[in-house]
Write a structure and sequence with these properties.
Layout: E1 3-7, H1 23-40, E2 45-48, H2 54-67, E3 73-76, H3 89-101, E4 104-105, H4 117-129, E5 132-136, H5 145-158, E6 163-166, H6 168-181, H7 183-186
Parallel strand pairs: 1-2, 1-5, 2-3, 3-4, 5-6
Helix pairs in contact: 1-2, 1-6, 2-3, 4-5
Pfam families: YpsA
InterPro entries: YspA (IPR010697)
Length: 188
């Protein structure tokens, strides 16, 4: 596998409302632990649309891995121009920095938001341009990723398209592993 799409929840869907929420550390570490073996196994590109939350955190993880010397590229393909225009300022800044540092950036529609068709086209584009999907998703908490997850399930019926899901249990496992890796955890 050379190309993977990564997506998941927006921050507010996870109850995260601040850029410095400690839970972001656990989400990013879980993403890192899932992506690293794929990169070591030949993954070359991570594709995101750049939406706030899991996708921008994925971008940060990829940029960190690149700094560590891993050969991985980040492509950002928003569904339309200025998707960040209605976001809170800290998320706008994060997004603009991310598109500046990405290996490739190209809006799928070279115009502003016009309608839901742009999101549907984006989902289809990501399925056709990648070989698998990694998604932070909980079947019991649908939210925004449910649209692309459903589309990916249908796509996988006729294509070799693995869908790797990060669940709340996976996040909890990362929290526990990081706690146990901390020497103070074992101190009396």
């Amino acid at each position: 596998m050379k190309v993977i799409t990564v997506t998941g929840y927006k921050p507010m869907e996870m109850g995260i409302f601040k850029q410095d929420d400690e839970r972001i550390v656990f989400v990013k570490e879980t993403l890192r632990r899932r992506l690293l073996p794929m990169i070591e196994d030949g993954l070359e590109w991570v594709l995101i649309s750049g939406q706030a939350g899991v996708e921008l955190w994925t971008g940060e993880v990829i940029l960190d891995l690149k700094e560590e010397g891993y050969e991985i590229q980040l492509g950002i393909f928003p569904p339309f121009l200025n998707q960040e225009s209605r976001w809170p300022e800290p998320q706008q800044e994060q997004y603009l920095m991310m598109i500046e540092l990405a290996d490739f950036y190209q809006p799928l529609y070279n115009k502003e938001y016009e309608g839901a068709y742009q999101f549907k086209a984006k989902d289809q584009w990501f399925l056709e341009k990648s070989e698998a999907m990694l998604v932070l998703f909980d079947e019991d908490t649908k939210g925004s990723p449910s649209f692309i997850v459903e589309k990916a399930k249908h796509y996988a019926e006729t294509h070799d398209y693995p869908i790797y899901i990060i669940t709340p249990l996976d996040l909890q496992e990362t929290v526990e592993q990081l706690q146990m890796e901390n020497p103070d955890y074992w101190a009396d």
